[in-house]
Design brief:
- Helix 3 packs parallel to helix 6.
- The longest helix is centred in the N-terminal third of the chain and has 27 residues.
- It is rod-shaped, with a radius of gyration of 32 Å.
- By secondary structure, the chain is mostly helical.
- It contains six helices and no strands.
- The N and C termini lie far apart (about 90 Å).
């Protein structure tokens, strides 16, 4: 006597098939396209930033080879002419040059002794402040770093 409520009438639970991964839903496709475009745009911005700062990397390499204050001043002038207009930078010297360097980088504080004794060997502090200026100066020229 098997009743309809007996354990012998139990059957396994029917589990449905999992949904297929392909083709994805339209919303998923839109999201993937948006993510792809965002990644491409971010890569483009990074590349442009890297390219715009090529003169800074070149200036830091030149600064490594600079031995005297005169060599450092030439390197800084070359970097400044790459970042700012030639008319704005080329004629600067002496106190005006020091003021320009200090005004274009808030983190730098060049002293007047930086331009004195051009053939003297550059100190570590002077080399560090020149590198800081190359890395962090603010150019107001459109398209420059």
């Amino acid at each position: 006597m098997d009743s309809k409520y007996s354990l012998s009438n139990l059957r396994d639970i029917a589990i449905p098939e999992p949904p297929p991964l392909w083709p994805p839903a339209p919303g998923t496709i839109i999201l993937l396209v948006f993510v792809f475009l965002a990644v491409c745009y971010a890569a483009l911005l990074c590349y442009r930033h890297w390219k715009q700062n090529a003169y800074r990397r070149a200036g830091l390499l030149l600064l490594q080879d600079a031995v005297t204050k005169h060599d450092m001043a030439i390197t800084l002038k070359r970097v400044a002419m790459a970042a700012f207009s030639r008319e704005e930078v080329a004629s600067l010297y002496g106190e005006e040059w020091i003021a320009f360097l200090n005004n274009s980088c808030n983190r730098c504080n060049f002293s007047p002794s930086f331009i004195s004794g051009e053939e003297k060997r550059a100190s570590r502090d002077e080399r560090d402040i020149a590198a800081l200026w190359i890395k962090h100066h603010i150019s107001h020229q459109p398209g420059a770093g």
